[in-house]
Amino acid sequence: LSSREVKNEPTIVDCCGVLFGGEHIPVIAGPCSVESEEQTIKTAEFVKAAGASMLRGGAFKPRTSPYAFQGLAEEGLKILAKAREVTGLPVVTEVTNPKYVDMVYKYADMFQVGARNIQNFALLTELGKTDKPVLLKRGMSTTIEEFLTASEYILCEGNKNVILCERGLRTFETATRNTLDISAVPVIKAKSHLPIMIDPSHAAGHWQYVGPLSKAAVAIGADGLIIEVHPNPEKAWSDGAQSLTPTQFIELMGSLRSIALAV
Ligand code: PEP
Ligand code: MN
Known about the structure:
By secondary structure, this protein is an alpha/beta fold. The chain has a single domain, classed as TIM Barrel (Alpha-Beta Barrel). It is 36% helix and 14% strand. Phosphoenolpyruvate binds next to loops.
């Protein structure tokens, strides 16, 4: 169902009027984690002013260590819904467990499946039964074939609104957190009709490289970007090193527009 052999025209996924896979290249921005109402709404307001189309923020955080901050759960989802009310930005947030699909559905406009859950087939099947778009991230050691096959778990249940997202692979290189597989964009476009976006933040692991990777993504034809932004990255509860400040985000949006008018 994900293949060009089945459907040759590109799929356009519509999330509350934000279109992925069309002419425009939407930018989703926001903090790694929802930390408080103030932090989330402040971030939502400035990313909107800078031209972002949607807000991101994690309420369920899939952390490497069980002792690290795990997210505010439903309280975080309520904050995201409030930020949407204030700014009008649709909200995407990660769901890590099939038992939380109904809860996340109540508050979010789009589900995110994180890299670590690409093979959580029970989760993918549950999301396939819903009618909200799913941003499906590639795992850190997932081949493109496995990535597309994972999307089938959602598509075959009836939900056709899948957006793929490349976020970097684990390789021998340690200078960046992950190695961005930029070739995934043209390869996936050749094989599939689904939109493919780029997460430069989790690939880079460092704010300094987020801009150049974003520019490469837009230039190569990615259908969207998801970027971590924090009002005060040094104080962020997760992923501060790769988060842009408001000023850095505004500057980046300006330079992306000079590469592609569609951003
Ligand atoms: C995230 O988006 O905050 C996240 C945890 O990303 P990934 O699943 O790509 O590591
Ligand atoms: Mn993060």
